[in-house]
Predict the structure of Secreted protein.
Amino acid sequence: MKFEIVTKWMLGFALMSAPLMASDEEPEEHIQVGSRALGHAERVLIQEQKYELIRKLENGDELTEEESECVLAEEEAEDGEVKSKLIKKSAGTSTTYYTSHEGATHHPIAVSLMGDTVQLEDGSIWIVSSEDRYQTFDWMTGDTIVIVPNHTWFSSYNYCLVNLNTGAKVKVNLSLGPIYNGIYTHWILAIDYSNREVYLEDGSVWKMSWWDSSIVNQWLPNDTVIIGINDGWFSGSNPNMLINVNMNDHAIGNCIF
């Protein structure tokens, strides 16, 4: 047992050391998280509105006319053809993940010795929940990571990193954004607010869900985004989510081009 623990610590240190030595030579500029974040009251109001709709859907309560039309549109979209690709099942579980954009798969390039931070290939750094840190000790650079929402209501952690090779799922918060103008960094070129379409620098076009319209309406061109997976409500028609680093929020959607 002791040998296994020591081995995991050594693996974590090996994964951590090379990238950290490289960054010491030439520090790189990262996008700051939440530079345009909404105030606490505004964020809480948006979340409460979403949770209220979830409660109605789960309990079968009556919806408003606008809510009914939007839910019907999402259900019809789920019945239609959405071009999403199966990534693969998570090791040790029956969970499968789908994506409409290749950028939803990530790789760890550094894990701190204590397992409290994970750095991904785009340079973004994530703080890991104290109760989950032990699960990151054996992560390797070749592992495939997906980012999903943390569905625990009112948790202090907004997301989860899922290692598809080990099956580990750890609660995280985004601490530092991707490298500015990095080769794996995505940002918004333009937004068509009336049609809820977001255009990224790689030429991809995203149709965002009505569900998150109030969030997307706050976004601006040049905002940096990280591509994640939506494994919650309306995932059939919205298999992905875009995490807006500048706003420190996310919205679900589908890459249509």
Summary: The chain has two domains: 2-24+90-176, 186-255.
